[in-house]
């Protein structure tokens, strides 16, 4: 799992990086992840699969933070899993064949990759274990009864079965705890600390430190065991991590994954405007539809008549993806830098604008930065305006910023945003600001993960957005 090797690609003469992960048999969709995989996947798969799982865990955390109902949570998670971590049942083997095992391999590998990223601090370990346990519970409850029981049988849990004699002696107490007829139920006896959710709901009878758990509540026992095993495994990995032979190319990937539960790349194909549909003179009137990061860049540019390198890069690519053509971008930046001469602008800035549009240098088509790239990229220093304001602003400055958007900081909504920031849920705070400052967007099912996604959703509420300027 932790070593890397170089192998020659069958499709080209170039060397492709592969990582030692491995093949395994997956009789069901459920997995306790007791053994790490030991085969090979590419470096690209290593990162892509990890980001897919990270997105799933991030959306689970978002749904909890936003107090989704059970029905809303289930619908959201099913949708997210179908897109990022699909897991077909055994009944689909006749149709999908090897794809069934391929899906389960991806699930297996992505779990262990994120273990490496999130075992590095107690807080990350706690969050990872909690979210993985919620994901496991959801999958366990969604699994077909026969496959679910087959999975449980293979785990050989050491649960003490309550005899019929003891059940008869405790019949009334067990009935009162379960609030239903228990005559046909089988009970297990376990330490009460292993089923805290059942104890909290008063769904089990407790005597001498033992909880009497009906078979129908088996999921609580299984999830508790999953959680305890995962926590111990994470602590063990944290101890041996410094001694692991990690490939230098993996370190930045793992570091970026471990910086927080951040949504993956935004699909730029969903951009609402085509290049040329906005002009340089339109930008000032569009700022109210910008996310806070782009608003801060724009206001800083208007105030100082200048932006430093990373600010120009972040804002320039945002405007490009929004639909500002290269010709209009050159006009916009020239007018914005009004305190310098034409000669200096041409010498120091014109090339960089053309480079962003792929017209200079290696002629690469640069994409706007996603929230992930902004949060994990170079952070602003004195005089800089780039970055994510939810991460970099002081409480006072952030309070002032959301107030300017019509959100009262002392209101329930304002406190919700500031609480999200304190908990480092920056994308949740940004999503909530969008919902409050542009009520017509409604309540979003998924969180904002790209500044242009924010703009597209906000601008769609503009009356002229569907009919032209």
From TrEMBL:
Keyword Iron: yes
Cofactor: [4Fe-4S] cluster
Positions of [4Fe-4S] cluster binding: 293, 371, 388, 430
Highest taxon above the source species: Eukaryota
Example of a GO biological process term: DNA replication initiation
Domain DNA primase large subunit C-terminal: 288-455
Cofactor info, note text: Binds 1 [4Fe-4S] cluster.
GO cellular component, one term: alpha DNA polymerase:primase complex
GO MF annotation terms: 4 iron, 4 sulfur cluster binding; DNA binding; metal ion binding
Pfam families hit by this protein: DNA_primase_lrg (PF04104), DNA_primase_lrg_N (PF26466)
Alphabetical UniProt keywords: 4Fe-4S, DNA replication, DNA-binding, Iron, Iron-sulfur, Metal-binding, Primosome
Family to which the UniProt record says this protein belongs: Belongs to the eukaryotic-type primase large subunit family.
Function as written in the Swiss-Prot or TrEMBL entry: DNA primase is the polymerase that synthesizes small RNA primers for the Okazaki fragments made during discontinuous DNA replication.
Protein known as: DNA primase large subunit
Taxonomic lineage from the root: Eukaryota, Fungi, Dikarya, Ascomycota, Taphrinomycotina
Gene that this polypeptide is encoded by: spp2
């Amino acid at each position: 799992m932790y070593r890397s090797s170089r192998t020659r690609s069958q499709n080209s003469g170039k060397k492709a990086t592969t990582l030692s992960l491995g093949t395994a048999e997956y009789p069901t969709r459920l997995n306790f992840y007791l053994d790490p995989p030991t085969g090979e996947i590419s470096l690209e798969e290593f990162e892509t699969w990890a980001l897919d799982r990270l997105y799933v865990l991030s959306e689970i955390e978002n749904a909890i933070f936003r107090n989704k109902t059970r029905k809303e949570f289930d619908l959201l998670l099913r949708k997210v899993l179908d897109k990022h971590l699909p897991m077909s049942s055994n009944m689909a083997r006749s149709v999908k064949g090897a794809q069934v095992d391929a899906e389960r391999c991806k699930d297996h590998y992505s779990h262990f990759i994120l273990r490496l990223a999130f075992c590095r601090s107690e807080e990350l370990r706690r969050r990872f274990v909690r979210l993985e346990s919620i994901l496991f519970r959801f999958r366990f409850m969604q699994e077909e009864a026969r496959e679910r029981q087959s999975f449980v049988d293979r785990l050989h849990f050491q649960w003490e079965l309550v005899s019929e004699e003891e059940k008869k002696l405790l019949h009334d107490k067990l009935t009162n705890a379960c609030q239903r007829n228990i005559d046909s139920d089988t009970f297990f006896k376990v330490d009460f600390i292993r089923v805290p959710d059942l104890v909290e709901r008063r769904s089990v009878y407790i005597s001498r430190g033992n909880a009497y758990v009906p078979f129908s509540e088996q999921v609580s026992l299984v999830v508790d065991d999953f959680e305890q095993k995962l926590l111990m495994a994470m602590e063990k990995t944290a101890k041996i991590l410094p001694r692991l032979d990690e490939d230098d190319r993996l370190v930045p990937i793992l570091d970026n994954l471990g910086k927080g539960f951040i949504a993956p790349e935004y699909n730029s194909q969903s951009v609402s405007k085509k290049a040329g549909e906005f002009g340089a003179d339109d930008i000032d009137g569009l700022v109210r539809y910008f996310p806070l990061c782009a608003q801060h860049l724009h206001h800083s540019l208007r105030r100082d008549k200048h932006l430093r390198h990373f600010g120009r890069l972040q804002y320039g690519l945002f405007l490009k993806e929004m639909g500002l053509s290269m010709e209009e971008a050159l006009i916009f930046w020239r007018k914005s830098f009004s305190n310098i001469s034409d000669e200096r602008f041409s010498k120091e800035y014109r090339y960089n604008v053309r480079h962003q549009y792929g017209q200079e240098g290696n002629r690469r088509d640069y994409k706007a930065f996603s929230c992930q790239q902004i949060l994990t990229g170079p952070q602003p220093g004195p005089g800089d305006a780039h970055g994510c304001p939810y991460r970099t602003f002081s409480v006072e400055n952030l309070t002032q910023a959301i107030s300017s958007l019509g959100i009262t900081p002392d209101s329930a909504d304002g406190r919700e945003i500031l609480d999200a920031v304190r908990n480092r849920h920056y994308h949740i705070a940004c999503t909530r600001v969008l919902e409050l400052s542009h009520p017509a967007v409604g309540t979003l099912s998924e969180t904002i993960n790209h500044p242009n996604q924010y703009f597209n959703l906000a601008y769609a509420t503009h009356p002229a957005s569907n009919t032209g300027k």
